[in-house]
Inverse folding.
């Protein structure tokens, strides 16, 4: 009696066949051979990427994912990670100057940019090893975006991590000079806010689409400019301006409606929102910062001067 | 810009959660370059709405605007910039005025001497239409021939290049397709009443021809042949647009004529049938293949086709693009 393979096995066979077809189509285009990558290596890379971004997906979806990748840049990056010299020569030719330019743009300073670029270069080359194998950051590039865009993002991540680490380190000498030992204990501001207002606000914010919440957070929490936000989303600045206007009005309206559902009259709801707006004791910056660092003496002096009465 | 209540800002801040997983650099880079699919993009956006660190990474990873780089470099003035244009226009005016004065002087001398130069009249470089035609453009003259209004802003050759994607220029004049010799029709009356041969007319150029050409009348025969008359229907000449198509509908507006026929065949002429352009209406990637039984053009740009299968196709840009309704 012939053995009928199970559905899983049939699917695996179909996937394997589709992968072979995809490799046959993409391997020549990727110039992987010129970078020193064999067909088998290339197939392994595509298989890994498909498993990462489309696990269990049908063969057709896997094929279209692979076709959407930046194949040549992927082959170059992975060949560099594998230590092929011809790939490194090509990489340095294309990206050495760009690494420095990107780092300078991120750090806004040449010396810091040089330092960041050098660190990045070492990570890309793979100066650290694990189990005798060189570990290169380029091995994690998957070709979903351009290699240059990936380098930008990796360097931005490294810069942000460095900044966070530096902020955690506090100089005791500096603190004593600034009179930190005489600082009054920070008291949590007690704000009388009706819990229904917070609940209504949370409900209104949660109901917003992800893009709207991103725009609000970037503008009001991160204090990004309209131009920066627009560039992140690939739209015109005026689009973001109109969106924020519209969101501000619709949020107010929605919160009032939510408060109405919670038993408040329209007048009560409006007053509840207005009370909060007039509340100048709320220090938004302190609430927004992720790490609670004691502010410097000079900042505390400035705050004391600003307080009314 | 309208402000949001502070409770909203607090609410946004409280939405931040200590996220253990973050999108990797590949996804963030793909997000910045807008190469993520709908579902993945929404997932990344949802994360970014809650994660300050990732928002900061995105803000740093977006490349700096290119315009700033371009602005720093001095842009060389192109050859057609204002100073060039100004002087070029002035020189062109001087040449035109000089040529006109020279021609006028020559005519006056000839008139004074009483000589007639056949070459100057029968084959003028620029045919001068009869005075009554030029004095009242768009009005009927004594002979009842309508004069075409001034040529439209864009020359036919310019429009032709813009429509290259969906049309093919029918080579040669319509008459050439006949093969067998056809007696040349008298053609438009110009230059003091003498008929100008077609060869001389065609060398003039489409814009000047358009200015002086009378508006013809059109008809379709029962067997799908197009016919043209310049004398109010007293005499008709067949115009062969295509040997393969039987024409079923036409719309004429001055010198502009559109004809449609079997299997979606659509032709357009801007010079009263002297030259034809074949168009292929396409909507949503699908071409028009049904027989065209109705053509309407209210003006140069807005048109409508009706087909035997009940389809309606419209254009608002003189056939550059079409929408199937």
């Amino acid at each position: 009696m012939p053995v009928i393979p199970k559905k899983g096995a049939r699917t695996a066979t179909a996937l394997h066949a589709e992968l072979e077809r995809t490799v046959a189509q993409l391997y020549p285009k990727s110039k992987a051979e010129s970078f020193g990558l064999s067909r088998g290596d290339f197939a392994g890379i595509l298989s890994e990427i498909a498993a990462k971004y489309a696990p269990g997906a049908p063969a057709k979806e896997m094929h279209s994912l692979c076709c959407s990748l930046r194949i040549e840049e992927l082959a170059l990056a992975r060949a560099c990670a594998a230590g092929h010299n011809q790939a490194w020569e090509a990489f340095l030719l294309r990206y050495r100057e760009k690494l420095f330019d990107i780092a300078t743009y991120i750090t806004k300073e040449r010396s810091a940019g040089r330092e960041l670029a050098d660190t990045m270069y070492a990570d890309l080359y793979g100066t650290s090893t694990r189990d005798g194998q060189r570990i290169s950051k380029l091995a994690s590039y998957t070709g979903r975006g351009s290699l240059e865009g990936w380098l930008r993002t990796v360097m931005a991540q490294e810069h942000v991590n460095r900044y966070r680490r530096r902020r955690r380190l506090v100089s005791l000498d500096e603190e004593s000079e600034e009179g930190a030992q005489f600082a009054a204990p920070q008291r949590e501001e007690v704000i009388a806010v009706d819990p229904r207002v917070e609940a209504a606000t949370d409900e209104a914010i949660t109901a917003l689409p992800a893009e709207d919440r991103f725009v609000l957070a970037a503008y009001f929490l991160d204090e990004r400019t309209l131009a920066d936000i627009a560039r992140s989303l690939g739209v015109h600045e005026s689009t973001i301006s109109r969106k924020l206007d519209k969101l501000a009005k619709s949020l107010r309206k929605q919160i009032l409606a939510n408060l109405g559902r919670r038993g408040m009259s329209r007048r009560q709801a409006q007053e509840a929102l207005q009370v909060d707006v007039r509340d100048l004791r709320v220090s938004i910056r302190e609430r927004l910062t992720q790490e609670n660092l004691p502010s410097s003496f000079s900042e505390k002096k400035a705050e004391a001067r600003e307080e009314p009465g | 810009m309208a402000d949001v209540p502070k409770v909203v800002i607090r609410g946004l801040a409280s939405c931040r959660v200590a996220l253990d997983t973050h999108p990797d650099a590949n996804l963030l880079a793909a997000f910045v370059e807008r190469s993520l699919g709908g579902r993945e993009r929404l997932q990344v956006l949802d994360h970014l709405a809650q994660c300050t660190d990732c928002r900061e990474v995105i803000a740093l990873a977006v490349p700096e605007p290119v315009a700033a780089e371009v602005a720093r470099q001095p842009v060389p003035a192109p050859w057609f910039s204002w100073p060039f244009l100004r002087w070029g226009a002035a020189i062109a005016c001087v040449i035109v005025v000089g040529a006109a004065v020279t021609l006028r002087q020559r005519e006056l001398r000839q008139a004074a001497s009483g000589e007639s130069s056949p070459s100057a009249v029968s084959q003028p470089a620029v045919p001068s239409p009869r005075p009554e035609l030029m004095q009242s453009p768009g009005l009927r003259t004594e002979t009842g021939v309508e004069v075409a209004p001034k040529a439209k802003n864009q020359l036919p050759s310019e429009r032709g290049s813009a429509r290259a994607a969906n049309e093919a220029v029918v080579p040669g004049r319509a008459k050439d397709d006949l093969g067998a010799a056809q007696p040349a029709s008298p053609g438009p009356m110009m230059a003091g009443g003498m008929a100008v041969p077609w060869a001389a007319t065609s060398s003039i150029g489409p814009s000047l021809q358009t200015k002086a050409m009378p508006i013809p009348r059109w008809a379709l025969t029962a067997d799908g042949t197009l016919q043209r008359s310049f004398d109010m229907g007293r005499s008709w000449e067949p115009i062969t647009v295509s040997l393969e198509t039987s024409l079923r509908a036409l719309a004429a507006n001055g010198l502009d004529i559109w004809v449609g026929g079997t299997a979606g065949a659509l032709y357009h002429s801007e010079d009263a049938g002297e030259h034809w352009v074949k168009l292929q209406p396409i909507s949503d990637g699908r071409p028009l293949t049904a027989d065209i039984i109705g053509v309407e053009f209210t003006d140069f740009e807005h048109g409508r086709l009706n087909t035997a299968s009940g389809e309606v196709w419209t254009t608002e840009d003189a056939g550059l693009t079409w929408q199937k309704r």
